[in-house]
């Protein structure tokens, strides 16, 4: 059995208990897994309470990202690396799986370039924001993760990543997971969130698109329905499949047995 990379989103409605229970059952059967998770909804709540509410930038291509100054980065690390990561590790320990929670900053697991400037659109005009702690994952420390896997530990990973200069950088978890799956030549990359997959008519869940050949994912028919953060997921899926990952599945993390459902083709399968 090849490696399966499971990215679990951080939006409202995610059933982390079901994800952990399902992953633990697969792990005990001999299936190797790496978990990557988000934590956006918790971060937004805590940032509001701390008086530093989340701000988002819309980029010229239509995608959005979190404006990440130093204070935002510290709140991000507090929630992603602390609260959410350890909550998931605890769930695995309860299931009898010896999970190890790490951020991409640890051991330079996720490494990439910090963006010197970020272009965004405001009132129809393109502007430039400087001083952001954001970047993209370009390298994965496969050796460290393989050592953990070979020693019987289940890695549970989360942003931030680390820049080549050593700065912590906020990075998109879906694209980080896609880079991870590509680096390992994974059998499958599962992107689990609070919707059943790619929807032709969002938010109508009955409009689920069950299957897409990767060669057609950039087709306007599909990119038109991939709005907001889903666009990043779609682009990450294209890169992963083109990079040698067996298949990518957009699946539902609100259900019981979400991993096995996705592996069985539940959701949107990109091949």
Using only CA atoms, what is the Rg?
A: 18 Å
Spatial order of the strands forming the largest sheet: 5-10-2-1-13-15-16-14
**Number of strand elements:** 16
Biggest sheet details: 8 strands, mixed
Q: What's the number of domains?
A: 1
Helix content: 25-40%
CATH topology descriptor: Carbamate kinase
SS element count, helices: 8
| Rough outline | globular
Average predicted confidence as pLDDT? 92
SS-based class: alpha/beta
CATH superfamily membership: Acetylglutamate kinase-like
Low-pLDDT parts are none
Q: What is the architecture at the second tier of CATH?
A: 3-Layer(aba) Sandwich
Task: Tell me about this structure.
The protein has 271 residues and is an alpha/beta fold. The protein has a single domain (4-270), classed as 3-Layer(aba) Sandwich (Carbamate kinase). It is built from eight helices and 16 strands. The strands form four sheets. Strands 5-10-2-1-13-15-16-14 form an eight-stranded mixed beta sheet, with helices on both faces. Strands 9-6-11-12 form a four-stranded mixed beta sheet. A two-stranded antiparallel ribbon has the order 3-4. Helix 2 (40-49) crosses helix 3 (70-94) and helix 5 packs parallel to helix 7. The longest helix has 25 residues, at 70-94. The model has no long low-confidence stretch (mean pLDDT 92).
């Amino acid at each position: 059995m090849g490696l399966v990379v499971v990215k679990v989103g951080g939006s409202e409605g995610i059933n982390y208990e079901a994800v952990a229970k399902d992953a633990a059952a697969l792990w005990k059967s001999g299936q190797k897994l790496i978990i990557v998770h988000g934590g956006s909804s918790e971060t937004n709540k805590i940032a509001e309470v701390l008086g530093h509410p989340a701000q988002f930038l819309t980029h010229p291509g239509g995608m959005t990202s979190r404006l990440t100054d130093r204070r935002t980065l510290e709140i991000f690390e507090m929630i992603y690396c602390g609260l959410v990561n350890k909550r998931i590790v605890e769930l695995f320990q309860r299931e009898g799986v010896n999970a190890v929670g790490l951020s991409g900053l640890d051991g330079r697991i996720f490494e990439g370039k910090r963006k010197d400037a970020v272009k965004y659109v405001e009132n129809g005009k393109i502007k430039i924001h400087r001083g952001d702690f954001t970047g993209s994952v370009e390298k994965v420390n496969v050796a460290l993760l393989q050592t953990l896997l070979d020693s019987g530990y289940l890695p549970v990973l989360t942003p931030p990543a680390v820049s080549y200069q050593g700065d912590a950088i906020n990075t998109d978890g879906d694209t980080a997971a896609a880079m991870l799956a590509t680096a390992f030549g994974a059998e499958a990359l599962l992107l689990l969130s609070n919707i059943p997959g790619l929807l032709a008519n969002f938010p109508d869940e009955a409009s689920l698109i069950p299957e897409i050949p990767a060669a057609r994912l950039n087709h306007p028919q599909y990119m038109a329905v991939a709005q907001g953060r889903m666009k990043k997921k779609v682009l990450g899926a294209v890169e992963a499949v083109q990079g040698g990952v067996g298949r990518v599945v957009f699946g539902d993390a609100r259900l019981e047995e979400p991993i096995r459902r996705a592996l069985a083709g539940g959701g949107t399968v990109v091949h």
